[in-house]
Design a protein that fits this description.
Number of helices: 3
Mean pLDDT: 80
Shape: elongated
Low-confidence stretches: none
Strand content: 15-25%
Helix content: 25-40%
């Protein structure tokens, strides 16, 4: 059995793994965030993203969800894990407040609200 081809196969597998790992697996929820004058950057890779679109629909890590699924996901988080709430600029505050109320009722205090920086 020729052994020289195994290094080529291993190299191709390595390239394939590197390309696949660079792709962003998050799906967009169609959020147009409000603008802010100042910003404090948050590490998005170390938290849970909950998006609320302009119609009030919830998205948990990019996938459609309901309030019960959001509650379960927040309950499973470590208290120091940051909760990122992304809301469309046209979303009524009552819809964003509902997510904040869930987090508050579960005692989760590490929350960030996303906004686009005004230019």
């Amino acid at each position: 059995m020729p052994v020289s081809a195994t290094s080529d196969v291993a190299f191709l597998l390595l390239i394939f793994m590197m390309v696949v790992s660079l792709t962003d697996r998050r799906t967009a929820a169609g959020i147009d965030p409000p603008e802010a004058r100042t910003a404090v950057p948050a590490a998005a890779d170390r938290g849970l993203e909950i998006a609320v679109d302009s119609g009030g629909a919830l998205f948990l890590a990019g996938l459609p969800a309901d309030a019960a699924a959001v509650r379960d996901a927040i309950a499973d988080l470590h208290p120091d894990t940051r909760l990122h709430i992304l809301a469309d600029r046209n979303t009524p505050f009552a819809d964003v407040s509902a997510v904040l109320d869930i987090a508050q009722s579960l005692g989760h205090r590490t929350v960030s609200l996303a906004a686009r920086i005004a230019e």
